[in-house]
Amino acid sequence: MNNTNYFINGLKTQNEKVILEIYTNSYPSVRRFVLQNSGQEVDAQDVFQKAIIQIMARVQVQNVVIKSTFDGYLFTACKNLWRRELNKSKRMVTFDQPIELKVEANDMAQSVLEQERWEFFQEKLELISGNCKEILKRFFKKMPYKDIAKELDYSDDNVVRQRVFKCKNKLTQMIKEDNRYNQLKTL
């Protein structure tokens, strides 16, 4: 059994030894990410805990398929949660009263939905041609067109622009043709 299945099964059965192992293996990279991105130690702990609870809840109710490593999957969930927290704090007004449980539950549901949307997007990205995948991965990382052209051996950045446009349209078409798109879009 690979590590991913080991960790998923450990979360599903709430095996304390496995959960401790997840903390030991994965928390340091999440901590480093949060600290490097305007967070504190307590923020890293909160985000990590929320991600673990989110994944535990998902594995209890549905069959979660992880195509990367478990560590990578957990890190992505934490990263998405932390970015969400940063965006929320930009808009949030501070109150001196405790957050209602209802708000916390709604927040958790929203983060699970965001994770499902991200996984759906990643699944579709893996289905497009290798060339499109390479171009779009660089494009989504905001790499300049001229650098993409150089790295992927295109004649100039205009050719890359055209390829990005065509590949994005193909990806969008694949996403919209999947029945899950409407479900994930409207939730």
UniProtKB/TrEMBL annotation:
Domain of life (superkingdom): Bacteria
GO molecular function, one term: sigma factor activity
Protein's GO biological process: DNA-templated transcription initiation
Keyword terms of this UniProt record: DNA-binding, Sigma factor, Transcription, Transcription regulation
Domain RNA polymerase sigma-70 region: 23-91
Keyword DNA-binding: yes
Pfam families: Sigma70_r2
SUPFAM superfamilies: Sigma2 domain of RNA polymerase sigma factors, Sigma3 and sigma4 domains of RNA polymerase sigma factors
Keyword set includes Transferase: no
InterPro entries xref list: RNA_pol_sigma-70-like, RNA_pol_sigma-70_dom, RNA_pol_sigma70_r2, RNA_pol_sigma_r2, RNA_pol_sigma_r3/r4-like, WH-like_DNA-bd_sf
Family recorded in the similarity comment: Belongs to the sigma-70 factor family. ECF subfamily.
Protein name listed in UniProt: RNA polymerase sigma factor, sigma-70 family
